[in-house]
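Holo model, magnesium ion. Inputs:
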Amino acid sequence: MSDSLTLTIIIVAVVAVVAIGVIAFVTKGRKPKTPYTSERDADDVSAGQGAQSTAEEATSGGDTAIAVEEPVFPAAPQLDVPEPVQGRLARLRARLTKSNNMFSKGLLALLSQDTIDEDVWEEIEENLLMADLGTEPALELVDALRERVKIEGSKAPARVKAMLREELLKLVDPTLDRSYLPEPHADRPSIIMVVGVNGVGKTTTIGKMARVLVAEDKDVLLGAADTFRAAAAEQLATWGDRVGVPTVRSDIDGADPASVAFEAVSAGIDQEVDIVMIDTAGRLQNKVGLMDELGKIKRVVEKKAAIDEVLLVLDATTGQNGLQQAKVFSEVVNVSGIVLTKLDGTAKGGIVVAIQRQLGVPVKLVGLGEGPDDLAPFNPEDFVDALLEG
Ligand SMILES: Nc1nc2c(ncn2[C@@H]2O[C@H](COP(=O)(O)OP(=O)(O)OP(=O)(O)O)[C@@H](O)[C@H]2O)c(=O)[nH]1
Ligand SMILES: [Mg+2]
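Output:
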């Protein structure tokens, strides 16, 4: 073998080694941020194959070693990019307007009258009750307004509106802790359990929340512990799939919900996700059965990790009736926050105040429609503005 041939072989070999190194590095750098084994494994396999085929080309000799082509990876599923959460509550204004908001129309007109006599105050109180504010808060608001109108003597609409805003804000209570993201733990995910009667929007809310969390760069895992309804796990998994969030579910209909929840939390710990969200059934043969089931899920999950947050989902359109159901839940599980769904379908925004009063738990999120990003963190100031300007 001539010297020049040996030199050529050495050069080709060196170039091939460098090419393999470059491709392996580029592939690694491209890997999306995902902690989940299924996707990560698939990625690693394709990366490995890319490097291997390149190595084969390189060692087959001659020019092919230099003319390396980009490896072809299997197409990644097209994931949704959820909207940021900031400013979402502003949509409420438009949606309450559509449903003829009671606060803005009736109250302000009444309060701006030249003389507010006893009859008018009664009418104001009636308006507040019709907006689902609840008896006690309605009386408090009327008393506070009467007092202020008496002292200030001003009937200018702008002034009256400002007074109403302030008094409403007090009732909604801006001092409550409304953070819907539990404090992170160093060694395990945060666990959120979602409860509520059937049809209120639990599964939809978890789906929307998974999107919010993904938008906030959190790794999420869902647990389909509603095994009562056959299609429930599929519904949840579909939401998760859209944003690349995995769902732990059972293939067996009617499987023990507590074991599914336990498996989900275990998987969440193993996969080092930030948050595990557990969906639960809203309907069972009877109330006692439902409550027993929730109690069991909680006990079993807590063998692995404490539940950080129990979100109770309530449908705003059921008004005061929903409150009765809510009380039963709060007796079994320690509800730490309310998600008020379907606020887009009611003119009775006062239900926020009634719920917080009766349950002693803050509204943390509100549902504003059926769209995937129609879930907004609850903000008292924006909410009161939406009520008054609808
Ligand atoms: N307009 C409106 N519809 C909503 C909202 N949230 C949920 N929904 C709808 O309410 C219906 C029931 O929602 P689900 O999420 O299946 O309710 P669920 O509580 O999981 O019901 P079960 O699993 O049967 O207990 C669906 O048609 C949702 O699209 C909302 O904020 N606004
Ligand atoms: Mg459901």
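Residues 202-203, 226, 232, 279 surround magnesium ion (ligand 2) (CB under 6 Å). The chain has three domains: 3-65, 90-172, 190-379.
Archived with the compound record.
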